[in-house]
Write a structure and sequence with these properties.
246 residues; 16-stranded mixed β-sheet; 3% helix; 43% strand; globular
């Protein structure tokens, strides 16, 4: 039987993916970044994805650190932001996967998650190619925000994206006969440019796009060595994330 850690590693294989079209020459480019996960939006309303309040009030800071097999990672890997938790339970992420957008199956409970938890954001051009976060000098509203988490031994994915899945290793969705429904999008805004490269970003839902604040929920269904995600339903998602390098 596969362990939770093994399932999480397989299901988040996107962490080691290279950019489409060989944009990075097959090399892995990783930069540690500081992430601030906020608990409220600009009006003071609680967000559905929130911090653990570990080192702040109304927000918390996440930075990369490791000790043996235990680690917390906040990096920009090949142009995509990755936040990952491994073999530790001190730091968590508050996730709300059960705020149904209409009549939907029951989702996992809202809780502070760390097992199998991995969040990431990536932006795309009109052809579906990755636009590295460092190259966004103003803003892009064609971005994804996804989060994987383990609840009661099942691995789930809550995803807002212009595509159900995108990139090597992301896996294959199992959708209804009419296809998986479209979701909302995320907007990544550059706050500071240094030597022609963005070094500070804010990630928010794209409220100007269709299906604003709506994400698809999937559950991981292992089929041999195939990464397969089965569509469950649509649920509301909201977040406010700041990133800085360093």
């Amino acid at each position: 039987m596969r362990t939770i850690a093994m399932l999480a590693l397989m299901a988040t294989a996107m962490v080691s993916a290279v950019l489409p079209g060989g944009a990075n020459g097959g090399k892995t480019n990783s930069t540690n970044v500081t992430a601030i996960i906020h608990d409220t939006d600009g009006t003071g309303a609680l967000l559905r994805m929130r911090s653990d309040g570990y080192n702040g009030s109304g927000q918390a800071t996440y930075t990369s650190n490791s000790s043996g097999s235990t680690s917390l990672g906040s990096t920009i890997l090949n142009g995509e932001w990755e936040l990952s938790f491994q073999n530790q339970s001190v730091r968590t992420l508050r996730i709300t996967p059960n705020d149904a957008a209409g009549a939907q199956p029951a989702g996992p409970p809202a809780s502070y998650y760390w097992q199998g938890t991995h969040s990431g954001s990536r932006c795309f051009d009109q052809n579906g190619n990755t636009v590295p976060l460092e190259n966004i000098l103003t803003s892009s509203g064609n971005c994804k925000l996804g989060v994987n988490f383990n609840s009661a031994g099942t691995l789930y994915k809550l995803l807002m994206s212009p595509f159900p899945f995108n990139g090597p290793g992301d896996g294959t969705p199992v959708c209804p006969s009419i296809g998986c429904p479209a979701t909302g999008l995320a907007t990544v805004t550059c706050n500071k440019v240094n030597n022609g490269t963005c070094v500070s970003w804010t990630i928010l839902p794209n409220t100007s796009a269709p299906n604003a604040n709506v994400a698809n929920l999937y559950r991981y269904a292992p089929q041999g060595r195939t990464i397969t995600w089965v569509y469950i339903g649509q649920y509301y998602q909201s977040f406010r994330i700041d990133l800085t390098n360093p």
